[in-house]
Amino acid sequence: MQRVAVITGASSGLGAELARALAGRGWRCVLLARREDRLRELADAIEADYEVCDVADREQVDAVAARVLDRHPRIGILVNNAGIPAGRADFLTVEPDVLERVFAVNFFAGVWVTRALMPGLEAAAPAHLVNMVSVAGTMAVGPYSASKHAQIAFSRTLASQLRPRGIRVLTVKPGYVETEGFPQRSRMGPLGRRFVVDPPFVAERVVKAIERGRGELTVPRWYWFGSAAQALAPGLLSRFVGGNLGR
Ligand SMILES: NC(=O)c1ccc[n+]([C@@H]2O[C@H](COP(=O)([O-])OP(=O)(O)OC[C@H]3O[C@@H](n4cnc5c(N)ncnc54)[C@H](OP(=O)(O)O)[C@@H]3O)[C@@H](O)[C@H]2O)c1
User: What is the pTM of this model?
Assistant: First the structure.
């Protein structure tokens, strides 16, 4: 029987690329996002199924999860990838609706989707839960990074909780990646652009990390120095890169 992977935020960027990479390795993908035209196009191309779903809406998540579990009682991989930037927002001036939306999509959605699909992961164990966080989640640089901090805490907490149940949790922390929602290159000067990678680079490394059963992945690897610098000297790195990572 074909192994099943569910990927949220699969209509573009990292989610779409990850779906292509997993389909290329024989996984049957279930694609979740809001833009149906995009989902249909990708599903046709990689022989996947899809569900239109606003993952920040708990009722929609529960209804979609019930349909997915009906078709696929065993889910070998769940990737919580859907996410949005916060613009150049800071905590003192950001519109409350924007702040709530950023947390709803970047943090709460992963919690709701994981809870709703947990029976499928347990039925498929050994299985994998992948949370697409960000290196920004290891730094204190504004609302976006705060939402990703929360997602890291969720991911690492579940890593120890789910291991005895045969579910490995992978926390992925990408650096700058050029995507629709995060058009990094256009925001940077010539030097900064050299630090931006493309989705296939990240997707390939994520798939390898899943196959190796790893718990944490920083990609590209050298971004790890930024996280370490923040941990050792809180505030220093925030002052240095705050404007960019806080998107
Ligand atoms: N690009 C970067 O530099 C970077 C770096 C580190 C981490 N990340 C993280 O990587 C993940 C993917 O981002 P990306 O760069 O690939 O951006 P992207 O191309 O804009 O993709 C975001 C995806 O999330 C989906 N999405 C957004 N809100 C949603 C909602 N309420 N319900 C369902 N789906 C929703 C979008 O689909 P619809 O609009 O069709 O719903 C889209 O498929 C995010 O979690 C992001 O925080 C990105």
Answer: 0.96
